[in-house]
Amino acid sequence: MGGFFCHTFVSLLPIIQFFEVLKHVSSLTIIHALFVTFWRGAFICIALSASLCVWGNYQKINSKKGQIDWVIIPSAKAKIDNTIIIIGVGDIMLGTNFPNESYLPPNNGKSLLSPAIDPIRRADIAFGNCEGTFLDEGGTEKKCNEPALCYAFRQPTAYAQLLKDAGFDVVSLANNHSGDFGQIGRESSMKTLRSAGMGYAGLKDCPTSIIEKDGVKYGLIAFSPNNGTLNIHNLDSAQILVKELQSQVDIVIVSFHGGAEGENHRRVPRKEEFYYDENRGDVYAFSHAVVDAGADVVFGHGPHVARGLEMYKGKVIAYSLGNFCTYSRFNLKGHAGTAPMLELEITKEGDFKSGRILSFIQIGEGGPIPDNDKKAVNEIKELSELDFPESELIIKPNGRILKKPSAN
Question: What top-level class would CATH report for the domain 69-407?
Fold first, then answer.
C-alpha cells in the first residue's frame, strides 16, 4: 500500500505543482520549480512510507473474503546468504477458559513457551498448528456425535501475543478445533492473530497467507478434513491452490491436519485413515501431491503423536509433529507427551540442506521442556526408518538430519 501510494504521489505531485507555477514565472524559474517540487514530493513520500512501516507490525493486503493475507514483517536488512531456517511444531493450545478458567495456565501463560523460545527466535520463519480458537467469551459451542470425546478450546485473545513474543510467525487454522465456537470463534481468531502481527491460513475465509521477512516471501497454505477448512481429500484442488501460491512467493509451506489419532496410529499406512468413522485423509498421497505441485516443506499434525520424516523430490515431509504446547485437557501420557521441534535448513530455492530434531516433552498439565533423553529424536528416527526406508534422509542419534551420500 505504501509503495503504491508513494509511486502515485511522486508521479503526480510535481506535475500538478509544475502547471501551477507555469502560469506565473519565467522559463528558468520553471526548471528550478520543477526540480524543487519533484524532490519535495519524494521527501514527503519517504516520510509517509516510513510512518506506515512504523505504524503497526504488519500490513494486511487483499483482505477480502477468501483472498490472501499478506503480512510484512519489518526487517533491518535483506537476507544475504542462501540458507533459510524454518521451524515447525505440532499442536499448540495455550489453555482454555471453557468450560471454566481452571484450565488456564499460571501467570496467564507467560512462561509456558519460555523453555523453547531460543530456537524459535533464531529461525527465519516459525510455524505451529493453532489447536483452538482465540475468543474471550461467547461463541456457539460445537456439538459432537460422541459427547464424551468432545472438547472445545477457547483461548483468551491475549494469548496470541504469547505466540508472537515466542517467535512464531504463522499458524494453521485448518483443524478440528478452529470451529469449536462457530463462525464467531473463527472471526475472533483471525482478528486476534492479525492484531498480533501473525499470519494464518487454512480456513475457507482465508486459505493462504504470505509472510515477507528479510526480503524473502513465504507462503503458507493449510488443509484438513474438517468443515470450514481447505479440503485434504481433494488433491486436484490442493495442487491448483499450491501452484497458485507458488507463483507469488519464494518458499511454499504446506500444513495438513490429518491421519488417525493415538498410540496405535504412529505409522503412515499409505492409504486413507479413519478415526471414529471420520475419513482423516490419505496423508501420504496428499503430501506427495502438494510437493509435486510446488510445496517446499510439508508439516503434518493431528495424530497427537509423532510420525516419521520423508524426503521426496528433495523436499522434507513431516507426517506428524505431535503435541507441542497443549496445556490441560490433553492426554499427554506415553508417546503423546513427546513434543518434537523440527528445524530445517533449506536453500532459497526450497531444497533441503540439513536439519535437526530438537527434543522436548510435556509433563503434568503441559508445556514444552527440554528432554535430555531425546525421546522425540529416537521416536522419529525409528519411525522414519520403518516407514520410509527408501527416503534419502539420515537421522543421527543426536537429532541431526542429513541427506544420504547418494542423494548429494
Answer: alpha beta
